[in-house]
Design a protein that fits this description.
The complex is a heterotetramer, with two copies of chain A (391 residues) and two copies of chain C (128 residues). Chain A is an alpha/beta fold and 391 residues long. Helices cover 38% and strands 13% of the residues of chain A. Chain A has eleven helices and twelve strands. In chain A, the strands form three sheets. A seven-stranded mixed β-sheet of chain A has the order 2-8-7-6-5-3-4, sandwiched between helices. Chain A has a three-stranded antiparallel β-sheet with strand order 9-10-12. Chain A starts with 5 loop residues before the first strand and ends in an 8-residue tail after the last helix. Chain C is α+β, with helices and mostly antiparallel strands and 128 residues long. Chain C has one domain: Sufe protein. Chain: A (Alpha-Beta Complex). Chain C is 38% helix and 21% strand. Chain C has a three-stranded antiparallel β-sheet with strand order 1-2-3, with helices on one face. In chain C, a hairpin with a 2-residue loop joins strand 2 and strand 3. In chain C, helix 1 crosses helix 2. In chain C, 39% of the residues are buried. Classes of the chains: A alpha/beta (391), C alpha+beta (128). Chains in contact: A-B, A-C, A-D, B-C, B-D. At the A-B interface, helix 1, helix 2, helix 3, helix 4 and helix 7 of A face helix 1, helix 2, helix 3, helix 4 and helix 7 of B. The structure holds pyridoxal-5'-phosphate (PLP) (2 copies). One pyridoxal-5'-phosphate is lined by residues 74-76, 104, 106, 151, 155, 180, 182-183, 203, 205, 214, 328 of chain B.
Chain lengths: 391, 391, 128, 128
Amino acid sequence: MSNKAVYLDYAATTPVDPRVIEIMQTCLSLDGHFANPASIHAKGRQSAALVSDARMRLANLLNTQPECLIWTSGATESNNLAIQGAARARAHRGRHLITMPTEHKAVIDTFKALEKEGFEVSWINPGADGLLSLDTLENELRADTQLVSVMHVNNETGVIQDISGIGLLCREQGVVFHTDAAQSVGKLDIDLANLPVDLLSLTAHKFYGPQGIGALYIADRPGNGIVPIMFGGNQERRLRPGTLPVHLIAGAGLAATIAASRLNDDTRHLQVMRDRLWDGIKDIEGLTRNGPDGNCYAGILNVSVDGVEGESLMLGMEPVCVASGSACNSTSGESSYVLRALGRNDRQAQSAVRFSFGHATTSDDIDMAIARYRWTVNHLRAIAPRSMAVS
Amino acid sequence: MSNKAVYLDYAATTPVDPRVIEIMQTCLSLDGHFANPASIHAKGRQSAALVSDARMRLANLLNTQPECLIWTSGATESNNLAIQGAARARAHRGRHLITMPTEHKAVIDTFKALEKEGFEVSWINPGADGLLSLDTLENELRADTQLVSVMHVNNETGVIQDISGIGLLCREQGVVFHTDAAQSVGKLDIDLANLPVDLLSLTAHKFYGPQGIGALYIADRPGNGIVPIMFGGNQERRLRPGTLPVHLIAGAGLAATIAASRLNDDTRHLQVMRDRLWDGIKDIEGLTRNGPDGNCYAGILNVSVDGVEGESLMLGMEPVCVASGSACNSTSGESSYVLRALGRNDRQAQSAVRFSFGHATTSDDIDMAIARYRWTVNHLRAIAPRSMAVS
Amino acid sequence: MAAIQPYNATVRECFENPDHAGDPQGDYDRVLKSTVMESEQGARIELWACVADGIIAKMRYRTWGCPHLIAAAEVLCRRLENGPVSGLSALDVSALIEQLSVPVEKTGKLLLLEDALKAIWAQHGYAA
Amino acid sequence: MAAIQPYNATVRECFENPDHAGDPQGDYDRVLKSTVMESEQGARIELWACVADGIIAKMRYRTWGCPHLIAAAEVLCRRLENGPVSGLSALDVSALIEQLSVPVEKTGKLLLLEDALKAIWAQHGYAA
Ligand SMILES: Cc1ncc(COP(=O)(O)O)c(C=O)c1O
Ligand SMILES: Cc1ncc(COP(=O)(O)O)c(C=O)c1O
């Protein structure tokens, strides 16, 4: 199966760029740069130099200062550190927080944990286009609001939020703004010097870096302090202790440089792939596109289809690897809460397929996906009771 | 410098075993096992199989069940999760906790954070041999004591605590026992089926696995529940969310298997190396060995020397890479709190050098270390004021 | 390495070749039919047994559900078709679970099929 | 890649070849000496200036301290030896910091050397 697999699940995780694999390898063996960057001996200093170089590379991708970046184990940890950290650091000023039900689980569940701790959370629903309305946000902001968290690109639908507009509103009110940019870093142009974002989460394995390494950006602004969630050492300004994983950091840094260099080309390629796929399936009766045409990241196409059961649809798609709902929840069996928040019913949400593309995706891959999708939908409809038929 | 470096800092971090590097590589590229193990498509299932295989390998090393192991980003996170998690889960029963001032920073700072949260912590000093006295522990255990945390092998001195005895005492009193085994897993024989340990922290980069991956063992016993410190998904029994880093986990698993297979040979080799080093320097006037002769892990030799300044000693040792105090604090500039707890004064503590060995360490490496150490001590004593002279 | 493979070969074969899916065509002495659903939004199954000359001349099903449910219906129909009418009397669920390697958390799905067969057997009984 | 190198070549050279470390030997018109320490447990320095024929005929030091302090003492002695006595009047700390690439958090260490030189100059003055 692995040999002929067609991988269209880049939004879940990407393969690692060959150049990134190469630099990671130079960090592993005895004659390589594997030493603890906190060690003051010569090999430790070499590791420290690699880490600082990587931090600079990531800072360049985001047009910010390396000092603003904290290495973490991924966006899940970054989200937890940002949200728990900012909420607790500002709890003496107020305990009202704002987010959306269409966020990633790592954001939603963190806010739910804070609710249990005594924080009050306003959950703002998106419009039918998946977007947060700035007017609604303005109405929800209160004197005691301390933190707003809205993701940049949605991992299921690709919807791009107006983080600049949201951030401006927050700045006006002195509210900290966090964005989960796991799906946009390395894919969309993000210029932190000119974006009113206070905290931003990212993870390297979404842009051809390794799994297990991410970062939290903390804007250098008064009042933007966070408290740590883990303790135990001087690393990362005491905000994130633990031995820095040199090969992962070096890999993440190089992945950032590569991402910056190919951003425009990639975007064009992804658009072509997505449009080819959409053109190949859009005539299917009872098909719904989840997420608006515009304001969407080109690397994701999410569709629902009437009269077809989701798990069987996934089996029929083999050997094309796609996600049903969010990859992060796909073993949980629940239908996507993101799609339900967009107004899809349970049946539609459970039949959703997320196709996501990367720079290795070819037209042949897309054609294979089209063929499998069409075959499976027809096949399952033929088996289904007539009462389920698409009218 | 890197070419002729002699690495004697294995207690800080180890290079990765070549076989481990190899399996990690099979997890990185598009045709490899890089997919998200939570994805239900074919490639996701392959990743999930690798993860479950690795969990089994680690379980075998420790003689326990794979279900008892939670992947984390390292021992720092495992310690935080275990200590914060157990303390908070049992807070309704009592808020008294016990640990020692000779623990790793990741334990100490976590307990300090809990003190701020309203927990009461008893800090038990070790005896002059570095060991926790069971009598003292018994006296400190109270009706409201909920958690005891004592490390297995000390990272600075190699002192091995009697975790079996400590655990038994805790069991008798219904107290949860956590041990930070970052320095012992893969190095000492640990049989969790027959050890009264409830929670155990480990990290792969101390036993020739990659940096950035560790685990927490949670014994399957009633009352041994913990609450998470991060939120956001179903991974790892909801105790540790985030995309599982396949290459790191596969690497950690294989490293565990390799460690098990060479444990006895390694121990013999380390003893030979340590004794050779000690024999080569023990006649130096004013030299003190930090840590007892017996009850010590063979891979570490820690010595202090009178009349010599620590930072200059480190420079004089080049190109031999050793640690001054704990590698984890070595950029902080403080003298070792572990050695001070053992009764060393500031001057002795600041001159401490930790030599630590691994299976690639050769007699030539040791002879080089002896030569550099002797030269540096003589050199610096010749420069020092006569008032500092060793009597 | 423990293969984590949610569908065994039988499930895959039945999913690819659901020969007994669809409505029954042709003339029979009796056509028994049942419809069962998990919930409004959940899995559903339609089952037909066509009796002629004292045997089950044809079995047919339609289903909206997961691959295990499709395969279970297909396997059942293959087994009963051309057999004695007494085959409709009971479904050996545990044998089916084993044959299709149904994971524990999904065994409930098969009860749907059992219910459909029971309903057909009841009809048969009333009419006999 | 930003090289994180705590000791520059001058520091290393002085550390390896502290030619002016040790007590002064020989006969001089005057031997001025000062001893300064950071704290009981901290760095300390002893500094000697031997004056003969109106010049600094010999400079010597002993120190217990970090490589930067050793190098600073060595550089100072090399510079002043065989020079005019007025060299003892002041230490250009910032030039030394630059020459030895002393990291900011360690510049305080050099004040120790400045204090030692001041004490010698004071002795010189009183005796002059
Ligand atoms: C939007 C979003 N946030 C957070 C995450 C979590 O990232 P990680 O699993 O690397 O922690 C993901 C992907 O898994 C994501 O898509
Ligand atoms: C005893 C001990 N505990 C915990 C740690 C932390 O491990 P990590 O840096 O992998 O989180 C270390 C080493 O750094 C250690 O030696």
